[in-house]
Design a protein that fits this description.
Helix content is 46%, strand content 11%. It has six helices and four strands; from the N terminus they run H-H-H-H-H-H-E-E-E-E. Belongs to the N-Me-Phe pilin family.
Length: 265
């Protein structure tokens, strides 16, 4: 029985096609197949149909009569038909051969023609790629601007909250000084320790250290403070000299310059 789906169908030829017709048909499809989607099948067809012995074996295996092509090397009178024709038109000069038309040939033709059309419209393809690239660049720029805006906004908020915390800390230190001074008036000496209450949500805590005559009030910023202030401290030390008694403010080492209160310069 004849195999209706065979290499001749793909080429749009009959089993009586000459070697020249087979070679021309293969080259025609290759020229249109610019993306190489059919390279493998075309190579297989070429190996089978351009080798007389392999072609004879192929034809026998697919049910073709040797008489159909034994004179195939005679000169061809008419030129090879265009393999890319409408599916309704017969690919064969013999009407009886219409039964051999390959059902998938139209899909192969349309795919190759579409690929060919795309190759002839580089400007449209370039325009589409250019537009997509512009949108990508715009998207990246928007993300970058948003990120920078967020960072700037966070920096501004940190500075504002930090300055506010330092101003509040100086007020609390002044109140702590008054508390210690009242203690000295009532007891005649600087307290070794003294409870200076602060709220749980405050960005600092205050301690009094009178041991070893240090005579200090220490305000240390905690985890509630903005990150640049955390673990830094402001220390008020009571200075006693002849005809002078007062407080001296000292920031801790590496205290952020932008947050230093004027009193501690």
């Amino acid at each position: 029985m004849v195999n209706k789906h065979n290499y001749y169908h793909i080429l749009g030829l009959t089993p009586r096609a000459t070697m020249r017709q087979i070679i021309d048909a293969i080259e025609k499809i290759r020229n249109l197949d610019r993306q190489g989607d059919y390279t493998m099948i075309l190579s297989q067809i070429e190996q089978e149909l351009t080798n007389p012995r392999r072609r004879a074996a192929y034809d026998k295996a697919n049910g073709f009569n040797k008489d159909d092509y034994e004179n195939s090397e005679l000169p061809v009178v008419s030129p090879i038909k265009d393999v890319f024709v409408d599916i309704d038109e017969s690919f064969y000069s013999d009407p009886k051969s219409s039964l051999f038309q390959l059902e998938n040939l139209k899909n192969i033709q349309e795919e190759l023609q579409n690929n060919s059309a795309l190759k002839h419209e580089p400007s449209k393809l370039k325009s589409a790629l250019s537009t997509n690239f512009k949108y990508l660049i715009l998207f990246i720029l928007l993300i970058a601007i948003g990120f920078l805006a967020m960072q700037f906004s966070q920096s501004v908020m940190d500075y504002y909250n930090g300055r506010k915390s330092v101003e509040q800390a100086m007020v609390s230190l002044t109140d702590a000084q008054k508390t210690v001074e009242n203690y000295i008036r009532n007891n005649g000496y600087f307290p070794e320790t003294l409870n200076i209450p602060t709220g749980n949500d405050e960005p600092y805590q205050i301690t009094v250290n009178g041991k070893n005559d240090k005579n200090q009030i220490i305000l240390e910023f905690n985890h509630n403070a903005v990150s640049p202030l955390r673990n830094h401290a402001l220390t008020e030390t009571l200075i006693t000299r002849p005809n002078f008694t007062g407080w001296q403010c000292d920031p801790s080492k590496d205290f952020p310059e932008r947050y230093k209160p004027k009193k501690c310069f």
